[in-house]
Design brief:
By secondary structure, the chain is mostly helical. About 55% of the residues lie in helices and about 5% in strands. The structure holds zinc ion. Zinc ion binds near residues 123 and 126.
Length: about 500
């Protein structure tokens, strides 16, 4: 069984539902058996688990590892940047197997004031586009932004009254029947601007979560920049009135975001104090759109990550001014380096012309910061997970092998392309040979493209014939044998059969 590859922005839930349609599996239990080999899997839209089964079913595409599925086909990126790094990593791990609700707990979805969407929704304009582009419909993840019932692209969204948790083990596909459910949707301008920002969040690549200290520092700085803070003191009333005038009290009240606004633990106060727990994406977005409306989500992450752990001030230090002071020149270099690294990663950034120069300058003038910052930006799979990601390596090896194979077609090699010859062309050939049992794609490639002795002999023979013809030389069996290095002993019966069928020899 294979799974239809997910469309861009399609939820995993939806791909599974489409598989059911493709294979004509009417019974939900049968679909669960086929996909997960487990009938207890709960059909989850936002943060699904058992993704390792999906990775395996998509193995042949060579495009979907666990991280890709999690970041491109679930709502994970809405939550990940706001929880500490260790939780982000644990959540990804749990999503690969059985989660038992742990993922929702870790990411704070369960305890949050912001509740997940529970009913199906769709955007008819998106659906028309889907049909034109892909010839079929699918559930798009940006239709399921919690508390934001609007399509970020088309200002409209139809909410159905079908609860997906009433179909716990069933994956329902999107089809044209939904078109008839034209209930009125209450679209609000605020929802749209927040939904657009949320979809920017969804587009962020997999990256390490900022620390609570970094968020603390960021919020303190933007409060200061907006004149809502002096020294350590944040004027919470002023912040609240700015947020209310940007979004309107009624809107915030409807979202439950003004509950206990006079309490000391009111979220809008806490977010400007030392962070001790996570805030929801919606709370973050609301403050961003009020205090730093011109910054994109990417800009904001760049700003937050700018506080490398070493330079983040303690709460005991009184104000931002106490942070290690740096020159404007240095700040400019840092900023350029950060942008480059966030876009390309440390390694690639260093290999670019401007990147190399920036790196050299910072290394000379600001080494501690540079090393701390780079360390933090390393991709989780490179650093924290010291174990080899065999699936990733497997894919890379097959790519290398395909390249070698194509090259050998353009420039035929003298030797037989045996499995060991192919492996010898790879970097780390010894470890590959030893670990073949962990590399199913590499194994498959070798099984399929290794040259048999007969294939090798025939390749050499046809090469000889072509060359002789080009030189208008008469082809004699003895000259062929000699030049190709064949003998009566070495020639295989199959090669012999084909040679005998060539009448001119
Ligand atoms: Zn739409």
């Amino acid at each position: 069984m294979k799974l239809p590859a997910p469309h861009p922005n399609e939820l995993i839930y939806s791909s599974v539902a489409r598989a059911g349609v493709y294979y004509g599996l009417v019974s939900p239990k049968q679909l669960l058996d086929e996909i997960f080999a487990d009938r207890k899997v709960i059909a989850t839209l936002d943060l699904p688990s058992h993704l390792q089964s999906i990775v395996l079913l998509l193995n042949e595409t060579g495009k979907y590892d666990l991280e890709t599925l999690v970041y491109k086909h679930t709502l994970f990126p809405l939550y990940a940047p706001f929880v500490p790094e260790h939780l982000r990593q644990r959540a990804i791990k749990r999503m690969s197997g059985k989660a038992d609700g742990a993922v929702h707990l870790m990411l704070g979805v369960v305890a949050s004031r912001i509740k997940s969407v529970r009913t199906f929704r769709f955007c008819p304009i998106c659906m028309e586009r889907q049909l034109r582009t892909h010839g079929e419909y699918h559930w798009q993840r940006d239709w399921f932004l919690p508390e934001l019932p609007v399509c970020p692209k088309h200002d409209c969204l139809i909410e159905t009254s079908i609860y997906f948790d009433e179909h716990r083990h069933q994956f329902l596909p999107l089809n044209s029947a939904y078109f008839s459910m034209q209930t009125s949707s209450k679209f609000v301008a605020n929802d749209l601007s927040l939904a657009k920002a949320a979809s920017e969040l969804l587009d962020q690549p997999a990256q390490q979560s900022p620390t609570f200290e970094q968020w603390t520092h960021f919020y303190h700085e933007i409060a200061t920049e907006c004149g809502c803070a002096r020294g350590k003191q944040v004027d919470h009333e002023k912040v609240l009135s700015l947020v209310c005038s940007r979004f309107g009290s009624l809107y915030l009240e409807n979202k439950g975001l003004l509950n206990q606004s006079q309490s000391n633990s009111f979220w809008l106060r806490s977010i400007f104090r030392k962070h001790r727990k996570s805030f929801s994406f919606l709370e973050h977005l609301i403050v961003w759109q009020t205090l730093v409306p011109t910054l994109s989500v990417l800009d904001i992450f760049i700003k937050v990550r700018r506080y490398a752990p070493e330079t983040v001030i303690n709460e005991s230090q009184s104000s931002v001014g106490n942070a290690i002071s740096i020159s404007d020149e240095c700040r400019a270099y840092r900023q350029k380096w950060e942008e480059l690294v966030l876009r390309h990663g440390v390694k690639q950034a260093r290999h670019q012309a401007t990147g190399g120069a920036l790196y050299a300058w910072l290394y000379r003038h600001d080494r501690d910061w540079l090393l701390a910052f780079n360390e933090q930006q390393k991709r989780p799979f490179e650093t924290v997970n010291k174990r080899v990601d065999w699936h990733l390596r497997d894919r890379q090896l097959v790519k290398d092998l395909i390249r070698i194979h194509l090259l050998s077609e353009a420039h035929p090699v003298q030797q037989r392309m045996s499995a060991s010859w192919l492996l010898n062309q790879l970097p780390h050939k010894n470890s590959v040979a030893k670990k073949l049992h962990k590399l199913p794609l590499t194994q498959k490639f070798l099984a399929r493209y290794t040259e048999s002795v007969t294939e090798y002999q025939l390749r050499r023979i046809s090469q000889f014939i072509v060359e002789s013809r080009e030189k208008h030389m008469e082809i004699k069996r003895w000259s062929l044998f000699r030049s190709v290095g064949l003998s009566d002993q070495r020639i295989t019966p199959d090669t012999m059969k084909i040679l005998d069928s060539l009448t001119y020899l």
